[in-house]
Amino acid sequence: MLKLVPEWAHHYDEFWAAIRKRNLWFIHLRYIFFIILLLFVFVGEYFLDFRFTDLQFRAILLTASYILIYNVIIHASRKHVGCEPGKFNCMYLSLIQTVLDISALFVLIYYTGIIESPLYMLFIFQTVIGSMILPGVVVYTITTTTCIVFIAMVFLQHFDYLPSHLIIGLTPNMMEHTFTYDILVVTIFSFIMLCSVYLANTISRRLYKREQQLRDYIIKIDEAEITKQRYIMGVVHEIKSPINAVQSILDLVINKYLGPVTPEIEEKLKRAKSRSEESLQLINNVLHISKLKLLEVSKKEEIALTKVMHTLLDKNYETASIKNITIKLSDKRKRKKIISADKTLLELAFSNIIGNSVKYGRQDGTILIELNDPLPDSVQISVHDDGIGIPTLEVTTVFEEFYRASNAKKKSFEGSGLGLSLVKEIIEKQKGSIELRSPSKFGSEQFPGTTVTITLPTIELRE
Amino acid sequence: MALIAVIDDDPDIIEASSLVLKSKGYHVVTATNPDDGYKIIQEKKPDLIILDVMMDEPDDGFFLAQKLRREKIKTPILMYTSVSKTIGMEFGAGEMVPVDDFVEKPISPDELLSKVHFLLNKE
Questions:
Q1: Within 10 Å of residue B102's Cβ, how many Cβ atoms?
Q2: Which residue among A185, A289, A340, A356 has the highest number of C-beta atoms inside a 10 angstrom radius?
Q3: Rounded CA gap, A352 and A333, in Å?
């Protein structure tokens, strides 16, 4: 199969979006052209001083209907034509459109007088726009063929091998053109065709390439930023370990685990401790900023939710089975749309939530994960459990950093108190929202349970 | 008196924790990497495990904790963390840490003792 996708087009999303958009323009232009043709045929002679013969009238009408029919077919089928290189894709659709358009134009030109037809200018328009989409070889082949056919038609007309279907009223004094005149017209025509196609093709290719390069650079910059922040976090973490050790040793002495300490020494040691605490605070700030930066440059990937959910369930299965907790997944979505977000971060967020449900769940409990889409452009993921729940007054405060619900603290469950604030941060970075309810829909008096509902925007395949 | 295993790759942290724990009469066994830690847990059957995150080791503290739970060893685990509260990202995506409580470094002796006391008396 003819290879139409250029080598350099590796950011396919952008490339295909441009192709599809251009195809759509063409389809819209063709409807307009159809209407103009009809006006030309039916109304033209009342306002402008010209007339068609019966044959011309029928030929133009037939061609117009032909254009309308194939345009409707292309319009209807474009939704089903995918964007996969190697298969029949929208590039082939634009090639077919170009060939159909040019053949229809030839018929129109033939029936409006060939060299006398005002329509042959449309070839330039057609090939210039075509050359923005299709690769050089194809465009030059089409342009050259068009020029050759047109030149042939002009000469065949000149030597009376083809009849001249002139529009009555355009050339009142019928003159014979000299051969030189015809040669001049076709030369200038071919020159303009080839030049404008060459220019349009090279300029648009350069722009496309530039666009793709820019995408490359953006990705590289983001990757560099991630590496940098990871490096900073690593280094800072290394610095933190010895300070932790210093503090632990100072604590031993200050708390008199090694025997009595004189008040002066104790005072100095406390001072040393407070200074090293300062540096820990600084380190924590740097780590915190690095984390925010990492969230900032998070990648955008297209994610199928069910796949993510199944991975998570597999990973949490073992921990849940210790408490004999059953995890159920129920997919109630009417539309299976994809979401665009950072997969690692999203997994981290969901795993935190499911992890919480397991952690604060009761023995032999149940966790129900529901996927739903009450609104067409978003998806709702609800995690219901029948665990210890959250006291009503604390439902909003659990999102604060380091906050742990009072009943969670009382039972000394594992937990750093960071989970939910991080989850909220991640979800909001992905333009979603999170909501917490307790009791959940199948909680009991003793185990009210919690429902966490996350809403994330979904995306359509782009036009 | 209860036996506590302290597993950390920083000898100073081990020494400091041991001193604090011994001062309250606990018996302490120590290891400086997850492999040795696993061995002493198998041999000495401690009543409580204090386990550092040990991010530098190939099989880190999380890995050891998960391995113990998989083998149905239900000894309470108290985990030392260093950055969890600040960033919360060291917990790999999709994984849960099956430990009973965390102590954030630097370790304050009082906090350590109260958590150890709580975990040992929970059963």
A1: 21
A2: A356
A3: 23
A320-334 pLDDT per residue, tens: 777 788 888 888 888
Nearest-CB residue to A414 (from B55, B100, B110): B100
Calculate ∠ Cα A13-A16-A17, nearest 5°: 80
Does the beta-carbon distance from B109 to A257 stay under 8 Å? yes
Q: Is residue A190 predicted with pLDDT exceeding 90?
A: yes
Same domain, A421 and A317: yes
* Domains in chain A, number: 2
ipTM score here?
0.78
Question: Are B98 and A357 a contacting pair, CB within 8 Å?
Answer: no
* Rounded distance between C-alpha atoms, residue A223 and residue A407, angstroms: 42
Minimum CA–CA partner of A244 in chain B: B106
Q: How many CA atoms lie within 13 A of A290 on its CB side?
A: 23
| A272 inside domain | no
Burial class (CB in 10 A: 0-12, 13-18, 19+), A227: exposed
Structure token digits, residue A76: 């209807």
Residue span of the structural domain in which A440 resides: 301-459
Separation of alpha carbons A278 and A267, rounded Å: 17
B contact test, residue of A383, A416, A425, A429 with most B CBs within 10 A? A416
Residue A369, strand partner residues = A329, A383
- Nearest-angstrom CA–CA distance, A360 and A367: 11
CA pair distance A57, A126, nearest whole angstrom: 24
Distances (CA, A) of A142 to A70, A110, A317, A371: 20, 18, 61, 51
Contacts of A288 in chain B (CB under 8 A): 86-87
Q: If you measure CA to CA, which chain A residue comes closest to B9?
A: A241
Supply the mean pLDDT for chain A: 82
Size of interface A-B (CB pairs under 8 A): 123
B contacts of A418 (beta carbons < 8 Å)? 84-85, 88
**Residue whose C-alpha is closest to residue A453's, from A378, A366, A363, A348:** A378
Peptide bond into A439 cis (omega under 30): yes
Report all structural domains of chain B as residue ranges with CATH numbers, in order of start: 3-120 (3.40.50.2300)
Q: Is residue A305 situated within a structural domain?
A: yes
Query: To the nearest 10°, the Cα dihedral for B95, B101, B106, B112?
Result: -160
Residue A195 to residue A188: CA distance in whole angstroms: 10
Contact check, Cβ <8 Å, B10/A355: no
pLDDT per position as a tens digit, A224-269: 888 888 788 778 878 888 898 999 899 989 988 888 999 999 999 9
Contact criterion met (CB < 8 Å) for A280 and B12: no
Query: Is A135 part of any domain?
Result: yes
Kind of pairing, strands B27-31 and B3-7?
Answer: parallel
CATH number of residue A358's parent domain? 3.30.565.10
Q: How far apart are CA A362 and CA A386, in angstroms?
A: 7
